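User: Hand in any protein.

Assistant:
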Amino acid sequence: MNFKLAQLVLLGLIILSCNSDLKFDTGKWKNSGGENITLDTRLNMTKDLIESQILINKSEKEISKLLGSPVRIHGNALENTKLFPVQEVYGWGIDPEKIIYIKIEFNKKGKVNTAELFITK
């Protein structure tokens, strides 16, 4: 009987550990950049980050404090749109198959109007 109970507890722990959504944490976000950009840490925080609207009505300076610096794609930068890297996804090659970003658009007052996922292939 104890063996079956141990199996049920183990199964429960496995199921609970599969929940990939994390609450947004600036420190974890910043530490999961750079060489850690291939890990799921940032991706697992994006649902909370976008759905809770943490970014809405914040200035670019406030966003940079939360997420770090934005990046440019192919050297292009749009004045009212910024991209913040979330995750690079690799297949068998050395180049990423896709890169996931949070795309943030600012209104005329310089405040965040929208924040959404943006994926390049």
